[in-house]
Amino acid sequence: MARPRGAKNLTKLEQRAIVEGHRQGRKHHELASQFHVSRQTISNFLKHWKTNGGREHKKRVGRPRITTSVIDRNIVRVSRSNPRLTATEIAREIAYPEGQNPSVRTVRRRLQAFGLEARRPVKKPFISIKNRKARVAWARAHLHWQRKEWSEVLWSDESKYMLFGSDGIKWIRRPDSKRYDPKYLPPTVKHGGGSCPVWGCFSARGMGPLHHIQGTMDRHVYKDILENVMLPYARQSLQPGFIYQEDNDSKHRSKDVQA
């Protein structure tokens, strides 16, 4: 007979992680979900912890844990030193005493007990150390700018509109057994359906023109946009001496454009 979820024996590592989560204001149901126990288990443990002046539960009788507190700390240390390692890779990295060889599932549970769940990473453009320093220097140089200075900046960029749906991650709620049910299948077309590239700008005075880029965006097309779209709008909407903002794309930095 399976052991009831509420009767799980919390390890010292799990107890410390639960206390830390409680101190951070996390709800009982959130902690229960993280540690795969019932809310009553979380409630009983925290009640015991408060009653006993913050001391951990005494060790209970049962099957001994296959990992020691030292191994648990090593598992967490390896994961934190390289967050991209999988539980399988971490299990191979750890040096175990003879007779101790925890499974990948055990390693995964130890990581989860310390709040190190596997999550989809957020993607962002790579920024070199040189560019990071340049960005910080720019921010400090403009730290004391007032509204008057910022109102004379014309911000610009290129982007695209997808002609069929989105090229981002799509989420849908469905039952486990309905993966291929047409109701839950988002429609797709070959080659993504295409896109519409655009150039646009804005300032403190409002939105500027949104220009459809015809063909491939190179330095010649960009120069034409500056001369026939950006400058007429800027001269009409901004004061002389306005600042035009653009990124360091190679076509923006070409000699033809800078001339």
TrEMBL record:
Name of the protein in question: Transposase
Q: Name one GO molecular function term.
A: DNA binding
Subcellular location, in the record's words?
Nucleus
SUPFAM superfamilies from the entry?
A: Homeodomain-like (SSF46689)
Q: Write out the GO biological process terms.
A: DNA integration; DNA transposition
Under the heading InterPro entries, the entry gives: Homeodomain-like_sf, RNaseH_sf, Transposase_5, Transposase_Tc1-like
Q: Which domain of life is it from?
A: Eukaryota
Task: Report the residue ranges that make up the Transposase Tc1-like domain in this protein.
Answer: 72-144
GO CC list? nucleus
Under PANTHER family, the record lists:
TRANSPOSABLE ELEMENT TC1 TRANSPOSASE, TRANSPOSABLE ELEMENT-RELATED
The stretch of residues making up the signal peptide is none
